[in-house]
Structures are given as C-alpha cells and as structure tokens.
Amino acid sequence: MSEAEASTSPQRTRRGGVLGFLRDLLVILVVAFLVSFLLKTFLVRSFFIPSESMQNTLQIDDRILVNQLVPDLVDVQRGDIVVFKDPGGWLYPRSTEPPRGFERVLQAVGLAADTSNEYVVKRVIGVGGDRVECCDAQGRVMVNGVPIDEPYVVIPPGETRASAIDFDVTVPENSLWVMGDNRYQSKDSRYNQDQPGKGFVPEDEVVGRAFVLNWPLNRFTWLGTPEGTFTGVDAAKEN
C-alpha cells in the first residue's frame, strides 16, 4: 500500500462509519414510524382528556391508550371506558388551535395523542337489551332492575343520587348507554335524549376501549371496571 493510500484509509473508514450509522438510523426510524402507524391503524390509539366529565378516574389533559379491537373483535362490556365519535350534538363547540405540521405527522402515525374535537370519552352503563333507570331509594342507578354500586362516581357535597335527573330507558341492540364518572359535570346519554340518537351510542361509532392511563407517568393506571359493580345484572336480564 502506498503512503497516499495509507493516509486516506482512516478517513475513508471514518466516513464509511458515519454513513453506515446514518443509514441504520434512518432504517430504524422508518421501521419505528411504520410500526407505530400500523398499531394506530389496527390496534392501539392514543387520546387526551379535554374535560372534567370523567373525574376522578381521568383528569383534564390525561393521556389514555385505547384498544381498537373493541368492539370489532372483542365485545363492549358494562363498565368499559370507551372512546367514540360524537353521534351528533354531544360536544360543545370548542375553539382549539389545530396541530402544527410536525405534531400532525406524529398524530397520523400514532406517536402523539389525538387532540381533535370529534371524540367523546364515557363509561358504558348499559349494553343492547339492558333497561337502565335512575334511581332507587338509595340514589343508585339500576340495570335490569339491579342497583349497581359505582365506586368511581363523583357526587357533589349535598347530593345523594348518582344522577341529578330521572331516566328509564331500554338500550337498543348494538347500542350503548354511557355516562361520565363525574355525573354532575357530564353531558352524556342522559342529556342527549333529545338528539336523533335519543342518547344511545351506536357500537359502530366506538373507536375502542381505554385500557391504560399512560400520561402523566405519576398517574399511570390500568383502567377497568371495579369488581362486583355489575354483579347479577346479566342474570336479571335473562329472567
């Protein structure tokens, strides 16, 4: 090897190493974005909480992950926290700044929470065929005639009922009756009975079931239904 070749070999090696690193980094980023996009499209999607209607389970600006296999492959269950597209007239108009270019890209591939104004987060209280009514003598909601104990419900001081208004409905098949955990601050099925859908949410509008509160990290929580909340409801429905 000549002296000229020997002197340039380290430079070529360094240059090749840098280019190789950049090439590998680009491949990793492309794969990461692709995987994230596929997850967002078919499996998991991220949303943020814009209101106080689900306190204290979910706080304003919390981030949740949603399982999109529900309800297409997995049935919706009573007690599930679901995200659904506004059936029409549920949401108050909100003026929010649209996401900027980079944030819009991150939302599209599932790396940022969806901040659009067209989705609602509530808890499922009744599924198709259920009779849901309020309230019994202790102020509890009843499903198929069975009073349910709901530890997640927020009731203001001075109030004793799980709902400020009375209602008695039978949920159509393939639909849901949903309510917020913060019952006195939630514009849910009860308050939308004058809309075309009469307060019921078609299962086709459900994006998925929230299964984890993932942000902020100090509030990381698996989301589900407290054990025993709906005990006896199915048996009463069959009778």
From TrEMBL:
A GO term from the CC aspect: plasma membrane
GO molecular-function terms, A-Z: serine-type endopeptidase activity; signal peptidase activity
Membrane spanning stretches: 21-43
Enzyme Commission code: 3.4.21.89
Primary localization: membrane
InterPro entries: LexA/Signal_pep-like_sf, Pept_S26A_signal_pept_1, Pept_S26A_signal_pept_1_CS, Peptidase_S26
Cross-referenced NCBIfam families: sigpep_I_bact
Active-site residues, as the UniProt record annotates them: S53, K122
This protein's UniProt keywords: Hydrolase, Membrane, Protease, Transmembrane, Transmembrane helix
Coiled-coil region list: none
GO biological process: signal peptide processing
Stated name of the protein: Signal peptidase I
Lineage: Bacteria, Bacillati, Actinomycetota, Actinomycetes, Micrococcales
